[in-house]
Write a structure and sequence with these properties.
The chain has 294 residues and is α+β, with helices and mostly antiparallel strands. 73% of the residues lie in helices and 8% in strands. The protein is elongated and about 100 Å long.
């Protein structure tokens, strides 16, 4: 078995350089497509992290009545906190609400005119953070029935927008990845088919002397795998060289997102290597099999 594998690898290496121009073109195309694949994956990871961040910020906000007591607020908070749909509950007093408002004005560089007011016009509120941003119905009902609550913000529109954007982006990302993969597979199939056609006489002679289809097929499969692995390695080198500026760009663009670059690098490396090797092997197998069954 081992001698046959070594023979197949040696024949694949010879075949790779015998059709050097086509092999280099296939490797370059594989590299380009894997770069697109890696780029799509990185952007998809950034967007997914962004959507998760936005989903975490979806909250139900209940505003307290002007004459609501602290006991009523504590009772409303306690009732909501024990619900399974709730991740966290924060009570914001009137003074805290005013402090937040002034802080936002300062960040925007806008003048603060609240000092001229006789009283604090902002109501106290209860902010409820959700485990699932789409599961808020029971929480709204509970808050609306609590004593001291004046009104509850309608989050239906915000949840619908977040859900729609999440679905669209993830669907587009998956479709783009599939299209890139099919393009690479098409190119590998045709490249190996050209290699097989150029050695048609050699294959016929091997058949005449009794060589099995497996004996003929495996060198071509290893050749396709070689194209895939070389393309993946070149892609990883390019991505590695671009890692530092790419990380800075991602951190700048997705500034508020909790991106884990260590995990992202590992996932991209595994994706590129497995995809390159897999497409090379599958493309070669399909191409050689279609030729041998004639």
């Amino acid at each position: 078995m081992i001698p046959f594998v070594l023979f197949s690898i040696r024949r694949a290496w010879q075949g790779f350089w015998r059709n050097g121009l086509m092999s280099i073109a296939a490797t370059a195309t594989m590299t380009f497509m894997l770069l697109l694949l890696g780029g799509f994956w990185i952007v998809q990871a950034g967007l997914s992290a962004g959507l998760q961040y936005v989903e975490q910020k979806v909250q139900v906000v209940a505003y307290m009545k002007e004459d609501a007591t602290q006991a009523q607020a504590d009772e409303a908070v306690a009732a909501v906190r024990q619900m399974p749909e709730v991740q966290d509950v924060v009570y914001v007093s009137k003074d805290e609400a005013l402090a937040r408002f002034r802080s936002n004005l300062a960040e925007r560089g806008q003048p603060d005119l609240t000092g001229s007011l006789d009283t604090n016009p902002l109501p106290a509120s209860i902010e409820v953070y959700l485990v699932d941003p789409t599961d808020f119905g029971a929480i709204v009902t509970q808050l609306e029935s609590s004593a001291g609550v004046d009104r509850v913000d309608d989050v239906q529109q915000l949840v619908d927008r977040v859900t729609t954007v999440t679905t669209v982006i993830r669907t587009v990302g998956i479709v783009a990845l599939v299209l890139v993969g099919l393009t690479v597979l098409f190119i590998i199939v045709n490249t190996i088919r050209l290699a097989v056609t150029s050695r048609a006489e050699e294959i016929e002679i091997m058949r005449l002397v009794g060589a099995s289809d497996a004996f003929i097929r495996w060198p071509f499969i290893f050749e396709g795998a070689l194209v895939g692995v070389l393309g993946a390695l070149v892609t990883l080198v390019i991505l590695g060289a671009a890692a530092a500026p790419l990380s800075s760009l991602m951190l700048g663009f997705f500034r508020v997102l909790p991106l884990e670059f260590g995990t992202l690098v590992r996932d991209v490396a595994v994706l590129v290597l497995v995809t390159g090797l897999g497409l090379g092997v599958v493309g070669s197998y399909v191409s050689v099999r279609s030729y041998l069954i004639r």
